[in-house]
Write a structure and sequence with these properties.
Strand order of the largest sheet: 1-2-3-4-5
Largest sheet: 5 strands, antiparallel
Order of helices and strands: HEEHHEEEHEHEE
CATH topology of the domain at 27-145: Aminopeptidase
Helix content: 25-40%
Structural class: alpha+beta
Distance between the termini: 35 Å
CATH superfamily of the domain at 27-145: Gcn5-related N-acetyltransferase (GNAT)
């Protein structure tokens, strides 16, 4: 993807953006780093959304709608004080994303996770999601945190279970959308667990 809106432009505006990113919390786990998203990370975000053949991520998406979703999710930092982290390994290789989100249709803040195919099945999403969950519950003191998971998304359900979340309900707020399972993360679970 080399669309003009994905190409950084150096100068004062880029410097200002870097200063804003520097204010966002950086979280670490044994094998992952959760850092502020950068413009160049949008390419991986768009790839993950465009590759979502199962429809677990709210698509279908095209490049424009995937980028708009990326920008809106990044913008949550300014609106809510939480949002999207880019997840890398300790050498800054991109793995995926975790977020504390709150999008239309959500009833309360959501712990979400989206990982590239090459990063799945290795416990990296667990480490990153655990760091984000603990930050949301311990540092931000959010009153509630859930994960909304499509019933057919077995991998995300397993991750929620591994994080200690408990199934709460099946919700169907929008008759045009697939129902979502609500998995509740509890404050008393906000601690580091070995990966």
């Amino acid at each position: 993807m080399s669309a003009p809106h994905l190409i950084p432009i150096p100068g004062p505006a880029a410097d200002f953006g870097a200063g804003l990113r520097a204010q966002l919390p950086v979280l670490r786990s044994p094998r992952t780093l959760l850092r502020a998203p950068r413009l160049e990370d949008a390419t991986l975000w768009c790839q993950i959304l465009l590759d979502d053949a199962a429809g677990h991520l709210g698509g279908p998406f095209d490049l424009d709608s995937a980028f708009t979703d990326f920008a809106a999710t990044v913008g949550l930092w300014l609106l809510r004080g939480h949002g999207l982290w880019t997840v890398t390994d300790h050498d800054d290789a991109l793995l995926g994303f975790v977020l504390i989100g709150f999008e239309p249709g959500d009833r309360e803040p959501e712990l979400g996770f989206l990982f590239a195919a090459h990063a799945r099945g290795r416990g990296l999403a667990f480490e990153a999601a655990l760091a984000a969950r603990n930050h949301a519950l311990e540092v931000l003191r959010l009153p509630g945190l859930v994960s909304y998971i499509a019933p057919s998304n077995v991998a995300s359900r397993r991750l929620a279970e591994r994080l200690g979340a408990s199934f709460e309900a099946l919700a169907n707020w929008d008759s045009d959308a697939e129902p979502a399972e609500i998995w509740r993360h509890r404050r008393d679970q906000a601690e580091w667990v070995s990966a």
